[in-house]
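S.,

Sequence below, as promised.
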Amino acid sequence: MVAPRRAVERHYRYASPRRRHRRRPFLIAVAVVLAMAVGGGSIWLIRNVSEGDQSPAAASGRSLTADSPSAASSAAAALSSCREQVDRADAVMAAGRTGIDHWNQHVQAQTDALAGRIDDDELATILRETREPGKHDVDAWHRARDAWKDDPAACSGVTGLSPADAAALGSCGRRLNALRAALPPAAAAMTDWSNHLSSMTLEQQLGDSREDWLAEWKTAPDHIEAWQKADEELTGAPSCPE
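The prediction came back faster than expected:
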């Protein structure tokens, strides 16, 4: 009976390590599968957090802040529109400045003639020379006026500008306001010039219509001087930097 017991014991001692050895590859394989499953789940979770769980603005690649390209583009367009308003208003004033200067010389010649500073021939020469560009003066004024459509919202309410562009917008806005103030006196003086040119020829002005001309001459300085004052104030307005 002793021998069989020892045989069993020897068989157990021999078989047990072999069975434990066979389990190791299985356990290792299970561990690898679990690691891959956990790792894959982690990767899926990370990808869904980083890619799938985004706001509409982030998903579309757009930022809704003032620093976004669309906001910057809108601000740049508003600044460009402001500058265009100023340029067109300046063009109106330039046309008026030329025409009113000729009108002023026209009126001043009559003043000088009545004061005895020039004779009738000199008067006729100056009146003729200043009348010659008169039609062009009026046409240029109307073209510039038609090209400028005042936008009350121009140069205001713009956000998202850089500090330099914001400063430029402020300068342009102040100039536009100064131009708006100067335009009515310019229009009044240019209307006088246009009416005079269309109401009489030079021959009529010096002949049969002389009394009508002198009536115009008396009132003309009021509008001319108002324009001169407005134009002088405009020189103190800031420029609109490009």
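Residues 75-235 form one domain.

Coffee later?
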